[in-house]
């Protein structure tokens, strides 16, 4: 018996990321090979014809899983009944623009879209914000859609997470699918902290800590971090266009793991509404390590430097998932210490997010 | 080596590569650049859309020197996406390096037609490209390499490639008409208000050009109450023999008009479908359209790359035989064959 189709909204769908993303969704990359989908694509009126062209191509590709396409410039029509919303649309930063200007334009966009989503999306709609400044756009969206559960509003740092996995796999000359459990902390910006402290690599001799195998702390604390932080700019320099393929693919990973669950023993990075874990100020959209189960994410607690604590953390998350499925109450294990180097990095990116939050609110006043 | 738990078949990761050629020449503006198809195609391949969700792949990407930096950017993004199935990426401007050991070759690169270009000029530029690449593929690809030519004029480019790579089995050289096939399914599904995966067995005959003949005489729709003939359900023969055909013929232009760029997403997706059905096999009772080396079936002159209805099994295609061809269809099939014969002589005259 075929499943009921899930409605997926992509805003900014006529753009580059949208064009890479929609065929991935239509092929089942986002929700699995057995999950039919209906695509809702939204863009602004100047892009209406291009958007229609994308709709035509989706019809032309004869995707078996694609049960319908809505291509519209009307935000209400776009949001109606959607179960998943991928917010790619936003005002891009142009050369010469001040950060304040980018912020001003985007907070108005996200304020109005929040309203439409809240009123017209399906209950329990899951949202991922991709457009930059992703964390702050997501925060604004949360503030202006108070009836959307706060845990349903996230931003994309899975691209940075995947980039970090890629960098480690290249450094160690291993397959990327054998590397896991990097963490992206904080803001999807150049203050993000890609943390390899607890990452592991599958070797013929079993799982080994990545820092041990890399055996180069200076690289891990220096060049590795800046490579991941600046990767977006490196792509723009090479392609003359920003990342679309990898951003779209990572957006699919983000949603898929959220909805279908993370594999055992593996966590991923997502920008989520902070609850004060790891002494990060509550009330920010901050990227944390999370596991996912039953359509819900849980921050990985108790990350320390010893492997047995990680085991405990994993069990704690298992219980958290089990407990949540029974009671829908979060189950916290008290956090363990983060080393000094990491602490500074975590705080720096939190500080930037607090500043962005203040800036965003001042734009709205 | 990777052993598939389901079938027990062994897939040798190292030798499973896809040579995929992108010409994204800076000279010919990104508007019509085949770089767009390549950019849409590689994540599909890396996710298993072409060979299945359990088949690891290595992707070889070829482009011309002016596009080397952009190609490097694509390689970086493939690394950044951390695809579990992707076991390697080769990004190169060296055709030999690109062709080495490839099992599948998707030829996207060619000289695009610009406004004001004569057909003869397009053909003459492309035959030189395909002659050179034939040579490299023949010498360096894995034995039994399967080739799909996408770049237009697709059928004639494929024919040239075949002529200059005589040791590649002729049945291994094909061109893409799956995009037209899928477009026909889409048009019928929209006309009837049914799901596209309930429509099957349209046929694209002939050339991937405006002389193509989209034939629904044998197409069916799964109505839930059994299979019904499309012609019966549409109940509008006039539409089927006029507007439907012209919509199909002009679809490429319609996409360009709307997007200001040619089809990339749908072309890439159809290329995946073409290869996947060829390698893994067509579902029972379903056929697909592929441009293949004609053997005289249906009265079509042998020695052309002509699109036929096919089934695929164990990595080989067979032309669906015995279909009744009415007078209207006969004329259309012959017209597109005539165009291919003309293109063939034009191509050969360019080479002398």
UniProtKB/TrEMBL annotation, chain A:
<feature type="binding site">
    <location>
        <position position="163"/>
    </location>
    <ligand>
        <name>substrate</name>
    </ligand>
</feature>
<feature type="binding site">
    <location>
        <position position="106"/>
    </location>
    <ligand>
        <name>NAD(+)</name>
    </ligand>
</feature>
<feature type="binding site">
    <location>
        <position position="93"/>
    </location>
    <ligand>
        <name>substrate</name>
    </ligand>
</feature>
<feature type="binding site">
    <location>
        <position position="43"/>
    </location>
    <ligand>
        <name>NAD(+)</name>
    </ligand>
</feature>
<dbReference type="GO" id="GO:0006099">
    <property type="term" value="P:tricarboxylic acid cycle"/>
</dbReference>
<comment type="similarity">
    <text>Belongs to the LDH/MDH superfamily. MDH type 2 family.</text>
</comment>
<dbReference type="InterPro" id="IPR001236">
    <property type="entry name" value="Lactate/malate_DH_N"/>
</dbReference>
<dbReference type="InterPro" id="IPR010945">
    <property type="entry name" value="Malate_DH_type2"/>
</dbReference>
<feature type="binding site">
    <location>
        <begin position="130"/>
        <end position="132"/>
    </location>
    <ligand>
        <name>NAD(+)</name>
    </ligand>
</feature>
<keyword id="KW-0520">NAD</keyword>
<feature type="binding site">
    <location>
        <begin position="12"/>
        <end position="18"/>
    </location>
    <ligand>
        <name>NAD(+)</name>
    </ligand>
</feature>
<dbReference type="InterPro" id="IPR001557">
    <property type="entry name" value="L-lactate/malate_DH"/>
</dbReference>
<dbReference type="Pfam" id="PF02866">
    <property type="entry name" value="Ldh_1_C"/>
</dbReference>
<protein>
    <recommendedName>
        <fullName>Malate dehydrogenase</fullName>
        <ecNumber>1.1.1.37</ecNumber>
    </recommendedName>
</protein>
<feature type="binding site">
    <location>
        <position position="99"/>
    </location>
    <ligand>
        <name>substrate</name>
    </ligand>
</feature>
<feature type="domain" description="Lactate/malate dehydrogenase C-terminal">
    <location>
        <begin position="157"/>
        <end position="301"/>
    </location>
</feature>
<dbReference type="InterPro" id="IPR022383">
    <property type="entry name" value="Lactate/malate_DH_C"/>
</dbReference>
<keyword id="KW-0816">Tricarboxylic acid cycle</keyword>
<feature type="domain" description="Lactate/malate dehydrogenase N-terminal">
    <location>
        <begin position="6"/>
        <end position="153"/>
    </location>
</feature>
<dbReference type="InterPro" id="IPR001252">
    <property type="entry name" value="Malate_DH_AS"/>
</dbReference>
<dbReference type="InterPro" id="IPR036291">
    <property type="entry name" value="NAD(P)-bd_dom_sf"/>
</dbReference>
<dbReference type="Pfam" id="PF00056">
    <property type="entry name" value="Ldh_1_N"/>
</dbReference>
From TrEMBL, chain B:
<feature type="domain" description="Lactate/malate dehydrogenase C-terminal">
    <location>
        <begin position="177"/>
        <end position="345"/>
    </location>
</feature>
<dbReference type="GO" id="GO:0030060">
    <property type="term" value="F:L-malate dehydrogenase (NAD+) activity"/>
</dbReference>
<dbReference type="Pfam" id="PF02866">
    <property type="entry name" value="Ldh_1_C"/>
</dbReference>
<feature type="binding site">
    <location>
        <position position="63"/>
    </location>
    <ligand>
        <name>NAD(+)</name>
    </ligand>
</feature>
<dbReference type="InterPro" id="IPR015955">
    <property type="entry name" value="Lactate_DH/Glyco_Ohase_4_C"/>
</dbReference>
<dbReference type="InterPro" id="IPR022383">
    <property type="entry name" value="Lactate/malate_DH_C"/>
</dbReference>
<comment type="similarity">
    <text>Belongs to the LDH/MDH superfamily. MDH type 2 family.</text>
</comment>
<feature type="binding site">
    <location>
        <position position="152"/>
    </location>
    <ligand>
        <name>substrate</name>
    </ligand>
</feature>
<dbReference type="InterPro" id="IPR001252">
    <property type="entry name" value="Malate_DH_AS"/>
</dbReference>
<feature type="binding site">
    <location>
        <position position="119"/>
    </location>
    <ligand>
        <name>substrate</name>
    </ligand>
</feature>
<dbReference type="Pfam" id="PF00056">
    <property type="entry name" value="Ldh_1_N"/>
</dbReference>
<feature type="binding site">
    <location>
        <begin position="150"/>
        <end position="152"/>
    </location>
    <ligand>
        <name>NAD(+)</name>
    </ligand>
</feature>
<feature type="domain" description="Lactate/malate dehydrogenase N-terminal">
    <location>
        <begin position="34"/>
        <end position="173"/>
    </location>
</feature>
<dbReference type="GO" id="GO:0006099">
    <property type="term" value="P:tricarboxylic acid cycle"/>
</dbReference>
<feature type="binding site">
    <location>
        <position position="126"/>
    </location>
    <ligand>
        <name>NAD(+)</name>
    </ligand>
</feature>
<keyword id="KW-0816">Tricarboxylic acid cycle</keyword>
<dbReference type="InterPro" id="IPR010945">
    <property type="entry name" value="Malate_DH_type2"/>
</dbReference>
<dbReference type="GO" id="GO:0006108">
    <property type="term" value="P:malate metabolic process"/>
</dbReference>
<keyword id="KW-0560">Oxidoreductase</keyword>
<protein>
    <recommendedName>
        <fullName>Malate dehydrogenase</fullName>
        <ecNumber>1.1.1.37</ecNumber>
    </recommendedName>
</protein>
<dbReference type="InterPro" id="IPR001557">
    <property type="entry name" value="L-lactate/malate_DH"/>
</dbReference>
<feature type="active site" description="Proton acceptor">
    <location>
        <position position="208"/>
    </location>
</feature>
